[in-house]
């Protein structure tokens, strides 16, 4: 037992410097002027040498962005100043497939974050985005030979324009919401994945997104297409140094899981506490397809993220598993949405949240079943843990059922860490901080057990980082 406790301590030892460091921007190749207007959008499209249809797509989205009001529900977005954000920065020549060709300071950044090491040990492919551009991308040779495509989104547009044009913006239209419109206007970077029919990608593909500069906006766009009978797991991580002023991360993720396909999308988000993290993630699951979102939200000042699955084919399945931790000055407004549009579809939502030091977590969810969709089943469970009297947790479930054969189960609980739990663990030799961290890790265990080993270790470290000095 003592050996197990020692192992747990080792896993949760943290060096803050791993995330909170920055590089000088004076040698960046391109930095556009702050502010959002037609000139900015045209500049981005011209820099990327995009086809005319994409430029027009961007301009229409810009018009939608200006017309749509800021959301007044959910989190407080009043701290966002769209005129004080830089919408495009290019640090260097991008999209290298040779790690040795990446500029030294950027390479050092990803070395410190462990990306090349992870690629060598665990992964089938890696994409690393720094500011607005993917600066490094690779895929394992055996996967490439099977026809798997894993590129930066910009490169995907260049090399596979017909596929991109057919699917881009079909799952998350620019008109979906204000921030989807913003992303559609100024998107840059992200991942483009296509898995051929019946191909099984048995090792994760990973993308890592890094914001380095102050007042930076990062707007990656990811499109994943899993053809019939295929299988793929995609993992993304995010981080940024801390600044006194705010930055914006507004991504869009579109997933198409065709008949019998299985897609798992895992996120470990550790943005610094000056980042507004406003993301639209949506999947369409066709007949007998399965989509899983495994979503971890640890950092940011404000997160608004509700991964969703539209079950459009009979027998399709969705599973959404999320965890959120909010500390001082943070609001994690996260949740899940499932829309059942076919018979014999099933969905499971499990949400875990922890609030401490006056932080706030919210579960915001939707379960919708269309009339005529027979034998639909959904189970939703939301568990919240409050670590003090200053913190807050809210649950906002929306359930719209238009079919009487549907089976729905919804459960929500809120609890506090008891003094007797802390006392018991301290009597077994743990310090007070260690005891609290162990309780937290037990609470989110349904989440961590679904992560690849190296990401479970990383999450342990992040939880420990957030829990330091939170007791007493």
What descriptors fit this protein?
single chain; 472 residues; 2 domains; 10-stranded mixed beta sheet
Number of E-state strands? 24
| Count of individual domains | 2
**Percent of residues in β-strands:** 25-35%
Continuous helix count? 13
Anisotropy-based shape: globular
N- to C-terminal distance: 26 Å
Structure classification = alpha/beta
| Computed CA radius of gyration, to the nearest angstrom | 22 Å
Low-confidence stretches: 1-24, 240-244
Mean pLDDT: 82
Helix content: 25-40%
Biggest sheet record: 12 strands, mixed
Write a compact overview of the structure shown.
The chain is of the alpha/beta class. Helix content is 25%, strand content 35%.
Structure write-up:
It is a single chain. This protein has 13 helices and 24 strands. The protein is an alpha/beta fold and 472 residues long. The chain has 2 domains: 83 residues, no CATH class; 274 residues, no CATH class. Strands 5, 6, 8, 9, 11, 12, 14, 16, 17, 19, 21 and 23 form a 12-stranded mixed beta sheet that branches. It has a 10-stranded mixed beta sheet with strand order 4-3-7-10-13-15-18-20-22-24. Strands 1-2 form a two-stranded antiparallel sheet. The longest helix has 16 residues. The chain is globular. The chain starts with a helix and ends in a 5-residue tail after the last helix. 50% of the residues are buried. The N terminus is likely disordered.
């Amino acid at each position: 037992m003592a050996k197990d406790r020692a192992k747990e301590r080792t896993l949760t030892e943290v060096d803050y410097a791993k995330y909170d460091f920055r590089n000088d921007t004076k040698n960046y190749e391109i930095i556009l002027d702050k502010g959002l207007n037609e000139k900015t959008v045209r500049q981005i499209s011209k820099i990327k040498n995009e086809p005319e249809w994409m430029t027009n797509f961007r301009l229409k989205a810009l018009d939608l962005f200006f017309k749509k009001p800021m959301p007044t529900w959910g989190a407080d977005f009043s701290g966002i100043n769209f005129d004080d954000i830089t919408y495009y920065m290019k640090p260097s020549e991008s999209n290298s497939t040779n790690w040795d060709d990446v500029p030294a300071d950027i390479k050092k950044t990803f070395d410190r974050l462990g990306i090349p090491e992870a690629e060598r040990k665990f992964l089938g492919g890696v994409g690393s985005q720094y500011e607005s551009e993917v600066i490094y991308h690779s895929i394992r040779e055996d996967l490439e030979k099977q026809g798997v495509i894993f590129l930066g989104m910009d490169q995907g547009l260049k090399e596979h324009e017909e596929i991109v044009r057919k699917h881009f913006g079909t799952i998350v239209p620019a008109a979906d919401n204000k921030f989807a419109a913003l992303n559609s206007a100024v998107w840059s970077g992200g991942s483009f994945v296509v898995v051929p029919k019946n191909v099984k990608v048995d090792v994760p593909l990973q993308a890592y997104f890094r914001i380095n500069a102050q007042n930076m906006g990062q707007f990656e766009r990811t499109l994943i297409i899993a053809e019939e009978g295929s299988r793929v797991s995609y993992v993304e991580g995010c981080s940024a140094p801390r600044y006194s002023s705010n930055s914006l991360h507004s991504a869009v993720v579109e997933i198409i899981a065709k008949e019998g396909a299985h897609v798992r999308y895992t996120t470990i988000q550790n943005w610094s506490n000056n980042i507004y993290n406003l993301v639209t993630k949506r999947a369409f699951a066709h007949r007998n397809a399965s989509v899983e979102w495994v979503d971890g939200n640890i950092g940011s000042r404000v997160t608004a993220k509700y991964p969703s699955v539209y079950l459009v084919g009979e027998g399709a399945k969705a599973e959404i598993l999320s965890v959120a931790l909010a500390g001082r000055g943070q609001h994690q407004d996260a949740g899940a949405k499932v829309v059942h549009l076919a018979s014999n579809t099933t969905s499971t939502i499990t949400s875990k949240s922890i609030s401490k030091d006056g932080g706030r977590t919210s579960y915001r969810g939707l379960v919708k079943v269309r009339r005529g969709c027979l034998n639909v089943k959904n189970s939703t469970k939301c568990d919240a843990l409050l670590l003090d009297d200053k913190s807050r947790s809210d649950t906002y479930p929306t359930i719209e059922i238009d079919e009487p054969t549907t089976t729905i189960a919804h459960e929500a609980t809120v609890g506090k860490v008891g003094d007797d739990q802390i006392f018991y663990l301290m009597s077994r030799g743990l310090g007070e901080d260690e005891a609290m961290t162990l309780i937290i890790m037990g609470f989110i265990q349904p989440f961590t057990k679904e992560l690849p080993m190296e990401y479970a270790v990383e999450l342990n470290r992040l939880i420990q980082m957030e829990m330091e000095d939170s007791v007493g």
